[in-house]
Amino acid sequence: MSSENLTERRILRRSDVEKKTGFKRSHIYELMRKGQFPQATHLGVRAVGWDSLEIDQWIAERLRERA
User: Is the dihedral of CA 37, 39, 9, 44 positive or negative?
Assistant: First the structure.
């Protein structure tokens, strides 16, 4: 992972998380329920987001596990 990705920390909306992981909403929420995926942060009454750094780290861990 490049240092550019680490410095560009932002809140990702669900559609962004789906694109990054390739998972659909139901699978993301199931993994969250099991404690196997970063938890979303409530941004408003009907809005949630994920820390981009946590998502990038989660993806990097999955890639390390398969090596």
Answer: positive
**pTM score of the predicted model:** 0.84
DSSP class of residue 39 equals: P
Where are any strands of DSSP class E within the chain? 11-12, 41-42, 48-51
5-24: b (≥16 Cβ within 10 Å) or e: eeeeeeebebeebeeebeee
Asked if 62 contacts 36 with a C-beta cutoff of 8 angstroms, the reply is no
Task: Kindly report, residue by residue over 4-49, the tens digit of the pLDDT.
Answer: 555 689 999 999 999 999 999 999 999 999 999 999 999 999 999 9
Tokens representing residue 36 in the block: 């196997």
Q: Domains, the chain, ranges and CATH?
A: 3-66 (1.10.238)
